[in-house]
Design brief:
32% strand, single chain, 217 residues, alpha/beta, nine-stranded mixed β-sheet, Rossmann fold
């Protein structure tokens, strides 16, 4: 009998990950993403968006750090040039996944703030946070779950589609939302402070769903 044909795997799609600040370690972000999408995506850590202007082809950008250059340099990285690189990338059909700290400090980078559809305002001390999902493509396989996290309070635009709500003793907030601009898709997730949240199986499923959604998979 002939040998069965082995299934040919398509090459991984490349994702630029802008991460690493004084409160959110880059290795925690990269490990969490690898766990959620390693069979489909190859992740490339960066301090800013400059690689979008090069010869490489990326299907998505993950923004998961404060608007600072690094853990050692607190000056903003997202100047007008950097912000416009991401805006053009999304306008041309690229995906943008904003996670936790990626909502912080971008009000001065108007092109990024306009894309994300929401921005961090404040958070109380870390506490137990209950996350409740609504019927949505990104909620598939995700039930209600609890994490010990920074409960982000945010301002959001009317144009977003909220599919996850966070609740704690401090109140209730939008915790995840989507929006589309032209062919580009954007998803924001406000949980994500610390390795225990990134390793949570329900949060992992959210990451997995979000990566596939923003890349049209």
């Amino acid at each position: 009998m002939p040998e069965p044909r082995s299934k040919v795997q398509s090459p991984p799609q490349h994702v630029l990950v802008i991460c690493g600040d004084q409160y959110h370690a880059a290795h925690e972000v990269m490990l969490g993403l690898e766990l959620a999408g390693k069979t489909k995506f190859q992740f490339h850590q960066a301090d800013n968006a400059s690689r979008l202007a090069g010869e490489e082809t990326f299907v998505a950008v993950v923004l998961a750090k404060l608007n600072v250059k690094s853990a050692e340099d607190s000056s903003p990285w997202a100047d007008q040039t950097q912000a416009e690189l991401i805006a053009r990338f999304v306008a041309s059909g690229g995906g943008l996944l904003v996670i936790h700290a990626g909502t912080v400090g971008y009000q001065s980078a108007s092109a990024i703030r306009e894309l994300t559809g929401g921005a961090f305002q404040h958070h109380p001390e870390s506490c137990e946070v209950d996350l409740i999902s609504s019927a949505h493509a990104l909620s598939a396989g995700v039930g209600a779950f609890r994490v010990h996290d920074e409960h982000y309070f945010v301002e959001v635009d009317e144009s977003i589609d909220v599919f996850l709500t966070s609740n704690s003793v401090h109140g209730s907030q939008p915790a995840a939302w989507t929006r589309e601009i032209g062919e580009g898709r954007i998803c924001a997730l406000t949980p994500g402070h610390g390795a225990s949240v990134w390793a949570d199986l329900s949060f992992q499923k959210l990451l997995h769903n979000a990566l596939y959604w923003v890349t049209h998979e």
